[in-house]
Amino acid sequence: MLPSWLDGRTATEFGKQIASDIRLLMPLEQGAKAPKNPAKRLQKLARIVERTSAQSAQHRFNFYQKAKFANALRWSLKDNGYTPDFIEEVVALILARM
Fold first, then answer.
1. Tens-binned pLDDT, residue by residue, of the chain (98 aa)
2. Is the CB of residue 78 less than 8 Å from the CB of residue 51?
3. Please, which of 54, 56, 83, 90 could form a disulfide with 98 given CB 3.0 to 4.6 Å?
């Protein structure tokens, strides 16, 4: 049995949940369609960051668990097809608020 400070299962699931929320609120733009309104996309991202900040206050992850969260979020977004630049910006924004 792992000590509670080394258990990263909750953080990993939380990272996957946030990646799923991002995928639903900010789907990838397919084809040659005109890009959506950037201000609207920024508002959606701000809502996700705020919700993540509020939820992370309840969980109170330690350093190791934050790393597990960031890794799960990063790989889930990568698996969904987001660009590396977008992934790094989102992860940095969210981690700064945790």
1. 667 778 888 999 999 999 999 998 888 876 545 556 778 888 888 898 898 888 888 878 889 999 999 999 999 999 999 999 999 999 999 999 88
2. no
3. 56
Going by C-alpha positions, the residue among 98, 69, 75, 54 that lies closest to residue 7 is 69
Q: Per-residue b/e over 49-63, b at no fewer than 16 CB within 10 Å?
A: beebeeebeeeebee
Q: Which two tokens stand for residue 17?
A: 């949940």
C-beta separation of 73 from 91 below 8 A: yes
Whether the Cβ atoms of residue 66 and residue 45 lie closer than 8 Å to each other: no
**What's the DSSP call for residue 7?**
-
Segment (H or E) for 84: helix 84-96
